[in-house]
Request: fold
Amino acid sequence: MSFAPERGPDVLDSIPSRTALGAALYRAAHQLVDRPLVFEDPFALRILGPPCPLQPELEQRETQAASAMRAFIAARSRYAEDAFAAAHARGVCQYVMLGAGLDTFAYRCTLERVRVYEMDRAEMHEWKREWLGRVGIAVPQSAASAPVDFERETVGEALSRTSFDFSEPAFFAWLGVTAYLTAEAVRNTLQDIAKSMAPGSEIVFDFATPLDRDSPASAAREAFSARVEAAGEPLRSVFAPEDLCAQMRALGFSRAEVVDAAVLNRRYFLGRRNGLQLRGGHLMHART
Reply:
């Protein structure tokens, strides 16, 4: 299954974040080649352009060698949205996407009374606004943009410039971002959420762990690190799972749980005939 390119790869040339584009390509490839779907996103292909102008890059994400990364990106989005659905059932109606990139949740969410806040660098917001118009994806009134620089300001400061209600709990999804920030910026953001958000707020985020050179996945990790550094977005922070749990509680979270590859494989990949599964990866799920 593929799209024939009918124009040059303008999105590849102009997007401010190559890693955001890479994640979008993996999400799109998952829609094309994996059955059953772990994460269903009807906008994953549309947001790359009609027809997709990035066929060679997309095909790289369709290969068997890329299956573990496809699985992780699908699983982290599925887990975050499942967790938000559970939070919404408890009355949480504010969803904040930290580092929104090319995520499409704001345009396909059907849950009642939900307000989605997409947070990213100002240049990414400007680019995405124009790009959505070009590919014909409408932005609903329930979606709002909140420019933020995680290295220089807090999430609360950025959200204070929007209609965000600090008296109500919120759900934060922070996917594919923390590894590219300094450890200090990650801690500051988490501390701000723990201290300034209403009780009952939650966050799900993925994080990089220290490299184990004896691990079968170490070569793939080193290759990935080299690619993103060459793209100008180097990996900058790692966290040991046990240490991160302790840090989360010290920052003020009442509950902090690491969700590792084994848990995600049991939840989303058990019994699959095509062998799609995670070989690594960690999520943090915490509540204030």
